[in-house]
Amino acid sequence: MTKTHQDSTFQAGVDIELQGVTKRYSSKGEAAVAALNVAIPAGEMVMFVGPSGCGKTTSLKMINRLIEPTSGRILIDGEDVTDINPTKLRRKIGYVIQGGGMIPHLSVGDNVGLVPKLLNWDKKRIRERVDLLMDLVGLDPVHYRDRFPRELSGGQQQRVGVARGLAADPPIILMDEPFGAVDPITRSRLQDELMRIQSDLKKTIVCVTHDIDEAIKLGDRILVLERGARIAQYDTPESILAAPANEFVEDFIGSGSTLKQLSLRRVDELDLTQPPTAHIGDRVAEVEERVRAAGETSVIVLDSRERPREWLSLRQLRHADEVPTPTTDLQTVIDHRSTLNDALDAMLASSHGGAMVTNRGRYIGVLSYTAVTDYVRALNEQASDEAETSGPRASEATRTSPLTQESSGRSSGAGA
């Protein structure tokens, strides 16, 4: 089965199964991974989480035999990986690490095309794949293909790392703390980019993270591990939040599990509004007439590629003849697959009561603050109703839930 992107096809994901996989670094010491049994469905993103030293990275690296298992079997699409040459195996599995792991003396294009070159692809095919993947991760190949790693920001380097992991079209991508070295805003954007790519390609992705919020946001399933890679719980984010298997999982999730449910809902699940838009270079007089006819006082400015560049009031345009080119980067733009939690964060930076929403960078509408708070209110009411059936103590806990407090705090902040 393949997935299509533009004129190219991508191979979809395959099943992974770990059967009694154990790793011991000494015959006498405690096992780093003890008899791990996990079935990872094809085309899903599974997040490995747990405290430091629990064996999550060791478990990940045994899948592509960067670390050899002491015992047990690892099956990829039904085939035991111990029967495959390790070098050949790794060229069929994408691997993305923190910081992108770029080779400093190679250009961006050569970094992305490294594995296809090792697989003896011809130059034309490699260049086409490099350009396609750079576009897929949001880097214009014309501007970035010939640059070197030192000329890129941390977020750009991480995007290149993802592109390189996809370069040879592997059915499986392994990720080891891929976004741990970037700032929170860039991290959120990279997470959104990964979700968008995965919705298109349906690879099987196994990702190690220490961040439960990242796991909830990205994962189709979450594997919560205790020491020795013993499974505390393996389930969907919804099930883990609603019913932690034990105290260990409860403590690892932390407080505010109701609030964390905002990371399960995506922007495209709510209705978007359609305020007036204008393009850079439009005549201000015509824009003003159109905006006032719509009963509005502000306009969203798009560029020639339909990307949102600014959200301006008519007052800000009154001294211009044409809509000017904005000179600052927006912080109030979110992807249609962003979480509602991310949407609320973006709205705090907006003076217009909403966040601009894009799909592949193209503007598609505005998510209003009211739409999100209405959804939050509905969640609270549902939680309150459920608590009422559980007795007075649960009801009291709901009235002071982190979601209620957080929602109230955001509301007052947005109105400031």
List the helices and strands and how they pair.
Blueprint: E1 2-5, E2 8-11, E3 16-23, E4 33-40, E5 45-49, H1 56-63, E6 71-76, E7 79-80, H2 86-90, E8 93-97, H3 108-112, H4 114-118, H5 123-136, H6 141-144, H7 154-166, E9 172-176, H8 184-201, E10 204-208, H9 212-218, E11 221-226, E12 230-235, H10 237-242, H11 247-253, H12 257-260, E13 277-279, H13 284-293, E14 298-302, E15 308-313, H14 314-317, E16 333-335, H15 340-347, E17 354-359, E18 362-368, H16 369-388, H17 392-399, H18 402-414
Parallel strand pairs: 5-10, 5-11, 8-9, 9-10, 13-14, 16-17
Antiparallel strand pairs: 1-2, 3-4, 3-6, 6-7, 11-12, 14-15, 17-18
Helix pairs in contact: 5-7, 7-8, 16-17, 16-18
Number of DSSP-assigned strands = 18
Main sheet specs: 6 strands, mixed
Please tell me the overall pLDDT. Answer: 83
In CATH, the architecture of the largest domain is 3-Layer(aba) Sandwich
For the biggest β-sheet, the strand order reads 8-9-10-5-11-12
Structural class: alpha/beta
Please, how many domains? 2
Low-confidence stretches: 392-416
Give me the CATH superfamily of the largest domain. P-loop containing nucleotide triphosphate hydrolases
Describe the global form. flat
Radius of gyration: 24 Å
In whole angstroms, the N-to-C terminal distance is: 52 Å
**Name of the CATH class of the largest domain:** Alpha Beta
